[in-house]
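User: Study the chain.
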Amino acid sequence: MPKRKDISSVLIIGAGPIVIGQACEFDYSGTQACKALKEEGYRVILVNSNPATIMTDPDIADSIYIEPINWQTIEKIIEREKPDAILATMGGQTGLNTALDLSTNGILEKHNVEMIGATKKSIDTAEDRELFKIAMKEINIEVAKSGLVHNLDQAFEVINKINYPVIIRPSFTLGGTGGGIAYNEDEFITIVKRGLELSPTNEILLEESLLGWKEFEMEVVRDNQDNAIIVCSIENVDPMGIHTGDSITVAPAQTLTDKEYQRMRDQSIAILRKIGVDTGGSNVQFAINPSDGRMIVIEMNPRVSRSSALASKATGFPIAKIAAKLAIGFTLDELKNDITDRQTPASFEPTIDYVVTKIPRFAFKKFPQADPNLTTQMKSVGEVMAIGRTFQESLQKAIRSLETNHYGLTNLYKDKSVTNNLRKKLITPSAERLFYIGDAFRLGLSISEVNHMTHIDPWFLEQIKDLIDTEINISRLNIENIDSETLLTLKKKGFSDIRLAELLHSDELTIRAKRKVLKIKPVFKRVDTCAAEFETSTAYLYSTYEDECESRPTNKRKILILGGGPNRIGQGIEFDYCCVHASFAISECGYESIMINCNPETVSTDYDTSDRLYFDPLTFEDVMEIIEIEQPEGVIVQFGGQTPLKLAKRLLDAGAPIIGTLPDSIDTAEDREQFKDLVTTLGYLQPYNEVASNLDEALQKAKKVRYPMVVRPSYVLGGRAMEIIYNDEELKKYMHEAVRVSNEAPVLLDHFLDKAIEVDVDAVSDGKEVFIGGIMEHIEQAGVHSGDSSCVIPPIKLSQKIQNTLKDQMINLAKSLNVVGLVNAQFAVRKNKVFIIEVNPRASRTVPFVSKATGNQLAKIAAKTMIGIPLNDQEIKTSTPMKFFSVKSPVFPFNKFPDTDPILGPEMKSTGEVMGTGRTFGEAYMKAQNATGITIPQSGSVFISVRDPDKTVNLLRLAEFLIRKEFEIIATDGTNRFLNDNNIQSSHINKVHEGKPHIVGLIRKELIDLIINTTEGKQSIEESLSIRAEAVIRNVTYYTSLEAAVATMNSFDYFNIMNVTKIQDYYKVEVHR
């Protein structure tokens, strides 16, 4: 069937902020969907609250609404835009849930809007655990024994039939949020209560334990004529009991028999038919009992999923693009496959002649109190993918792609014999279990013994054991005596140069030189969806060690961009955004753009973002091999965060043509002593600071710096291990526990400017001129990591004189550092004095937000300066003055880590961000709060307990405001006395250590509606932890910054005023310079 003519406009719902369980794979799918529908001539309207995505760029859709994603907001957009249809299957669980809300509340029917991609009935049947169970029974497909419950009493009735251990799955949540495995009654009660609270329908599924079963996924696409294809089969290396997002996975499935595969394939298609998915892609998950072959279906997602992005990158088949076109009426046989130069229709099932391995990336170091064991609730913050001709090669490439200082199966277990500690590490799933499996084989455990403890299929264990046996053999060799055949065999198994150097007691450059002498170098193969059956000109490539190279580099002028690698806290989608814009700019200027990255979730690794894509690890070895074959005119390391920056100096020394700001300038900015000299020369103010290489030196220099101090390691991203220290005892504890200090890795000591306003400034320099992209005033005071603080453009408290000073200092700093490209600086303003905190001559995480707030694509402008186009030759929009406000607010994963402290500080903890816009600050701020999912009560009981520096007139005004809004104030002793002394009525409540009745008891009894709790110093923070932890568990809104609480109350007037404005309309007020 041809595309539908009865609809002309489609509203796409995005996924919102990056959170654990729903990451930037939906930026990839949403961007593809927008492009696909525009390509077919439809008017595309997009709503998404996430400024860090490519899909919220003004040229991706005809109308872009960066607004909170909820049915009330979207109804206003529908009223304004009058779309014919709504596509919710590209926005993850957020998109589906919002579409259901729109349908349930009669909005779609009222405005005559059709739901395409998936119907309400199909979503309900797939997502509602009981309906899905009934549907599967009707087509004779087995599901796990289970029971659906809505309260604790019903849960106990079901558990008596199923028995422990039991899997607990809340309905309509993402990433398994609220779920888990209960082994006893205490765990059962805790997880059931949490799951019921977090499920939007107060519904959970109790399911028989499938722990130890093998898990598989099938990515299926079906059209309205019942044509269906399996895009990819995916096998989890880890057994059931670990969320698939946290499991190592492999494509195609490696251990299925042909009979099992065909049965799984048939059942997948039958499930899509039964559920009613006939216009797009779905993900179906299966489990197989390895002892008897029993196969059951776990669940299906009637939408594009995390695994869809992986399957798309693994095969080259653009699932989201095809799904979007199926949603508007096309059939699979009518659509052509771009990868094969449109020689084959989309109805051809992809075939691959390589192995893909995905390994998740975790952030437990950011949350040291969190349980690091892996369960059915997803905890990873990112992932990498690697392609190899064998499982061993792809596994080893994936390991070194993670950037966790592992370049192979590193030895973690240092004991010389097998102990109960090692057995525990094998039995308990964790981020490091793969390495402990290797250690188990080193110590002589058999495959059978390791299988018994891990339930990982023996085939995978055989592969890992063979790698360990090979490592043992390597360690007996000498680098001088290794012949060409031996070294080639090792490279085919995926051994990196640096891992070989570790095993041979050599160094990476020596191994590299040995390879060159023996003429051993990688070739590059193409991902083509058809196992080379058809010729392809699409340059989607990966490295391996074989004879024939399919790279076929061109003679065009070319620029190579290094991506950001796996998402992590401190280095997320914002850096991928910059890389994508660099690629766009380079192509626009007539160069061939080349991307290297290993992150399957991102737009940068889409096959049509750059002219050439290399899906390979971002290590010195892998990058240099690509540079040598491509011979680019320039290499951009500035946009991918710390990942490429760490490689910059070595790449430059090896002859790579780095363009933009050179590594020496970056070193000047990052080296504390050099930067201090620069600031002194310019005559600017800086918080007094020192550098210490050991504890004694730190204690001595602390006397000069004076407490409180901000302490952190040098060369970090995301504030890793950064703390505010108030005395010698805290400094001693920090130096002993938080960091390893040396001359090469000193600790930085800065005097902390309490009660200062922190400011971010983003700019672009061409080496002569500097363009100020935006000045962002932080809402929270200095001391909260910039990535965790809300901020506003334009500033609301800074005088024009201060803003001019900030601009002047930024321009002079950029020129002094010889910046060519992006530069970010952080300042603190205190008592009308400007202090420079740091300068980063690279992309920052604020670039996408500034770009959306101003209409200038800073990364694109910067990329053009790097290839020689001056700022004066570029069209740059300016606004005099800006006619709207933009607020960026962070989103945190504390609901995933209920044991961790949600207090904000100098170490970054947020996973994503949202943006609110409005004609006033209050409107923009309230929208941003709304978009983060924060529910702000409009009356009730408010608990206030603040540190002494916050007992100010601002607190009194806040308290008076709350009383006017009919809040009852409850406060601890010091705060209560301060309020009462200033004639503000409040009630006293004990701190926890003061005995009952105490504040945590009130929170548990649900007698507190709002919490304002600020504190400082290790002891006070630890004493008040239980307050914040209980707030997270009970879903009570809390503020750990007085400034954020004040901003919220100042925005109260906008609670019920929700205007919607497309981002393109804001830019109409601007002119070109």
